[in-house]
Amino acid sequence: MSVIEAKSLTLSYGQKPVFSGLDLSVPPGKITVLIGSNGCGKSTLLRSLARLLKPQEGSILLDGTEMAKLSSKEIARRLAILPQGPVAPEGLTVHQLVKQGRYPYQSWLQQWSKEDERMVNNALEVTDMDGLANRPVDSLSGGQRQRAWIAMTLAQNTPAILLDEPTTYLDMTHQIEVLDLLFDLNEQENRTVVMVLHDINLACRYAHQIVAVKDGQIYAQGAPETIMNEQLIRSVFDMECQVTYDPIFGTPLCIPYGKGRKIAKAAVAAF
Amino acid sequence: MDTLLSTRSRKTAGLIVGFIILAAGIACSVAFGVTNIGWRTIVASYTDFNGSQEHLIIKTARMPRALIAAAAGAALAVAGSLMQGITRNPLASPSLFGVNAGAAFFIVTGSAFFGASGMSTFATLGFVGAAFTAALVYVLGSIGNDGLTPLKITLAGSALTAFFSSLSLGILLTGGQTFDQVLYWFVGSVAGRDMGIFGAAAPYMGVALIAALVLARHMNVLALGEDVASGLGQKTIYIKLAAGIVIILLAGGSVSMAGPIAFVGIIIPHLTRYLVGTDYRWGIPYCAVYGANLLLAADIGSRYISFPQEVPVGVMTAIIGVPFFVYIARRGGRS
């Protein structure tokens, strides 16, 4: 089980500081979702946790060891990252893509093993992509494509998976398809999932823990049902809303104020 | 897009066919021309050299020409394939690194101010110029926080190409000398070079080709994007640097031997992807073999298009390449 911790993280793009002295601990075996308004630094935080960005100060610990002291391949065997909107080369098949997930296990001496083969087949099966294995990735629907990329990260066989906005550009059906898959991976295989999501309601539904990021600081962190309220949404997203409960899942549900048509209560009852 | 050769055995067969065509191409290149030479004479010129004019033509003109065409074609195609990989731009070619413009500038300068002449001197100057410019493009394209990006390298390449081309033209126009030899070099040709030119470039081009084969597996991962590759534990900066050096050696070697020859670096990598898909472990050897075949064929064709006069092979590849380029651009625009 991978434990990821950030200790007094300081990072800036050019002159503009993104974080200064940020601390974060990701609970192992749970789903953690980073939320926040555009440009608040949540993607930057996720990318730093996955060593795609180097912090100027502070450190990221993986199972208690500083990431900077681990080899990149060693990290890749413990932690997988799916960046936002990945693009596969034209004509690359799903099977070829998923096989690349075994890269951190290969070397001059060890080119392709039975274990690699088993992991690739398992990843295809779990994501329900085995029927599409020989199709080019660019011929698939958005949801299938995202599942293919998730299959690649699964072939990495890491206890932790980080995903940057895995549902962006997907329609509702495919969003649920992808999030259900990640939920199952957490439930059944106890994988640690950390992701950035834009949809607060879906975040509340799937996450064990939410990390709300504001201006490069962690504004609140905890189970959605304990931290989610009108005041948090107001501070983090600068938006007025009412927080109620999802009629099916019982998780917090944010309904923004603002404009829109109104239908009288009597008419709603007549449905 | 389904690939034509989908199984391992078919891909192997395609590669063997490529090698057979290569052997036949070299033989034809030696045999056919203004004077056709019989097979027996070709063999005899190596086994039983008698100093006759035919034997001399074979050993000093035809054979180096065939080998240079094959080597330059292979190098250009492999360099193009790697270039398209690291820039993630399907229309990128080795000339994007400024190799042609840089080589030309050094040759023009050498010729105008230092009295350089002869194809061997041009080859050396050309290689130094190509390597210098490509390294400069690489460094300029890597400056900044985000390192080497496809956009920055394309811009740096275009800028330096325009700069060196302008300087070269300026020198040619104001020099007031005759630059026949230089102009001949400018078109790109494999004729009139001796074995020494091939022998000088072949070793480092061979090493670069082997390095390209070793890089293939890493290029497959890099092709998924910088972030994905880093996430899989690749030190992308080293892979890109290694690919850059290989491109400089291959494209620089090719331009030093044959001058600027366009389109081989675009046509062949695309043809290869159509045949065997995106896997560089197949793509690199296919590019090498079929790149050699294309330039050999174009060079043989160039002897007959306005027989008995020869057209430089650089003109031939342009005639073949332009319609192909338009086709790729249109197809890319659609998808």
TrEMBL record, chain A:
<keyword id="KW-0408">Iron</keyword>
<dbReference type="InterPro" id="IPR051535">
    <property type="entry name" value="Siderophore_ABC-ATPase"/>
</dbReference>
<dbReference type="GO" id="GO:0005524">
    <property type="term" value="F:ATP binding"/>
</dbReference>
<keyword id="KW-0547">Nucleotide-binding</keyword>
<dbReference type="GO" id="GO:0016887">
    <property type="term" value="F:ATP hydrolysis activity"/>
</dbReference>
<dbReference type="GO" id="GO:0005886">
    <property type="term" value="C:plasma membrane"/>
</dbReference>
<dbReference type="Pfam" id="PF00005">
    <property type="entry name" value="ABC_tran"/>
</dbReference>
<dbReference type="InterPro" id="IPR003593">
    <property type="entry name" value="AAA+_ATPase"/>
</dbReference>
<keyword id="KW-0472">Membrane</keyword>
<keyword id="KW-0067">ATP-binding</keyword>
<dbReference type="GO" id="GO:0006826">
    <property type="term" value="P:iron ion transport"/>
</dbReference>
<keyword id="KW-0406">Ion transport</keyword>
<keyword id="KW-0813">Transport</keyword>
<dbReference type="InterPro" id="IPR003439">
    <property type="entry name" value="ABC_transporter-like_ATP-bd"/>
</dbReference>
<keyword id="KW-1003">Cell membrane</keyword>
<feature type="domain" description="ABC transporter">
    <location>
        <begin position="4"/>
        <end position="240"/>
    </location>
</feature>
<keyword id="KW-0410">Iron transport</keyword>
<protein>
    <submittedName>
        <fullName>ABC transporter ATP-binding protein</fullName>
    </submittedName>
</protein>
<dbReference type="InterPro" id="IPR027417">
    <property type="entry name" value="P-loop_NTPase"/>
</dbReference>
<dbReference type="InterPro" id="IPR017871">
    <property type="entry name" value="ABC_transporter-like_CS"/>
</dbReference>
From TrEMBL, chain B:
<feature type="transmembrane region" description="Helical">
    <location>
        <begin position="95"/>
        <end position="116"/>
    </location>
</feature>
<feature type="transmembrane region" description="Helical">
    <location>
        <begin position="153"/>
        <end position="175"/>
    </location>
</feature>
<protein>
    <submittedName>
        <fullName>Iron ABC transporter permease</fullName>
    </submittedName>
</protein>
<keyword id="KW-1003">Cell membrane</keyword>
<dbReference type="GO" id="GO:0005886">
    <property type="term" value="C:plasma membrane"/>
</dbReference>
<keyword id="KW-0472">Membrane</keyword>
<keyword id="KW-0812">Transmembrane</keyword>
<dbReference type="Pfam" id="PF01032">
    <property type="entry name" value="FecCD"/>
</dbReference>
<dbReference type="InterPro" id="IPR037294">
    <property type="entry name" value="ABC_BtuC-like"/>
</dbReference>
<feature type="transmembrane region" description="Helical">
    <location>
        <begin position="237"/>
        <end position="268"/>
    </location>
</feature>
<dbReference type="GO" id="GO:0033214">
    <property type="term" value="P:siderophore-iron import into cell"/>
</dbReference>
<feature type="transmembrane region" description="Helical">
    <location>
        <begin position="122"/>
        <end position="141"/>
    </location>
</feature>
<feature type="transmembrane region" description="Helical">
    <location>
        <begin position="66"/>
        <end position="83"/>
    </location>
</feature>
<dbReference type="GO" id="GO:0022857">
    <property type="term" value="F:transmembrane transporter activity"/>
</dbReference>
<feature type="transmembrane region" description="Helical">
    <location>
        <begin position="195"/>
        <end position="216"/>
    </location>
</feature>
<keyword id="KW-1133">Transmembrane helix</keyword>
<dbReference type="InterPro" id="IPR000522">
    <property type="entry name" value="ABC_transptr_permease_BtuC"/>
</dbReference>
<comment type="similarity">
    <text>Belongs to the binding-protein-dependent transport system permease family. FecCD subfamily.</text>
</comment>
<feature type="transmembrane region" description="Helical">
    <location>
        <begin position="311"/>
        <end position="329"/>
    </location>
</feature>
<keyword id="KW-0813">Transport</keyword>
<feature type="transmembrane region" description="Helical">
    <location>
        <begin position="12"/>
        <end position="34"/>
    </location>
</feature>
